[in-house]
C-alpha cells in the first residue's frame, strides 16, 4: 500500500483543513481528535509522510513516541487523570481509518469508560479542552 498525500492528516499538516493544534516541534504535530472518546483525546502524528508504523522510519517512530509521552503527561495534568491510554492502529484490518501514522492519547479515570467512537465533538468544548492541555504544556 502506498501513502496518500490527500489524506485528512496530510491536509491538516498543509493547513488546508483547520484543527485545534496543541503542540508542534520539528518532527511531530499534535491536535485534538474531533470525535473524542474521552475529554482531552488528542492525536500525535509525524510531519513527514508514512502510512502507519509498518512503513515508518525508526526516526519517525522515535519522534512520535517522545511526543506521545509528553502529551500523556500533559493530558493527565490537564484533566486530573489517573492514567492514559495510547492507541495506534495499522491497516484496515487493524482498525486504521486515516492512513497517516497517528497515535491516540486519551486521559483516563478509573470510573469513566471510553465513549463509543464516531460522535462529533462540540467545537466550543473542544477548544476549552485544548486550552487546558496547552496550559499544562506551558
In short:
Helix 2 packs across helix 3. The chain is built from three helices and five strands; from the N terminus they run H-E-E-E-H-E-E-H. A hairpin with a 3-residue loop joins strand 1 and strand 2.
Tell me what the structure shows.
With 138 residues, the protein is of the alpha+beta class. It has a single domain (8-137), classed as HIT family, subunit A (2-Layer Sandwich). The chain contains three helices and five strands, in the order αβββαββα. It has helices at residues 8-13, 58-78, 123-137; strands at residues 21-24, 28-32, 42-46, 83-87, 103-108. The chain has a five-stranded antiparallel β-sheet with strand order 1-2-3-5-4. It is globular and about 40 Å long. The relative contact order is 0.23.
> What is the CATH homology-level superfamily?
HIT-like
Low-confidence stretches: none
* Top-tier CATH class: Alpha Beta
Helix content: 25-40%
Alpha-beta content class: alpha+beta
Total count of domains: 1
Question: Can you summarize the main beta sheet?
Answer: 5 strands, antiparallel
Beta percentage is 15-25%
Question: Topology, pairings included?
Answer:
Layout: H1 8-13, E1 21-24, E2 28-32, E3 42-46, H2 58-78, E4 83-87, E5 103-108, H3 123-137
Helix pairs in contact: 2-3
Amino acid at each position: 500500500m502506498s501513502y496518500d498525500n490527500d489524506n485528512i492528516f496530510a491536509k491538516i499538516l498543509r493547513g488546508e483543513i483547520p484543527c485545534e493544534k496543541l503542540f508542534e516541534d520539528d518532527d511531530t504535530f499534535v491536535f485534538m481528535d474531533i470525535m473524542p472518546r474521552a475529554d482531552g483525546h488528542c492525536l500525535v502524528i509525524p510531519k513527514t509522510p508514512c502510512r502507519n508504523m509498518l512503513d515508518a522510519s525508526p526516526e519517525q517512530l522515535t519522534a512520535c513516541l517522545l511526543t506521545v509521552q509528553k502529551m500523556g503527561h500533559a493530558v493527565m495534568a490537564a484533566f486530573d487523570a489517573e492514567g492514559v491510554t495510547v492507541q495506534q492502529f495499522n491497516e484496515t484490518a487493524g482498525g486504521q481509518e486515516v492512513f497517516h501514522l497517528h497515535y491516540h492519547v486519551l486521559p483516563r479515570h478509573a470510573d469513566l469508560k471510553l465513549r463509543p467512537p464516531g460522535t462529533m465533538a462540540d467545537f466550543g468544548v473542544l477548544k476549552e479542552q485544548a486550552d487546558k492541555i496547552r496550559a499544562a504544556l506551558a
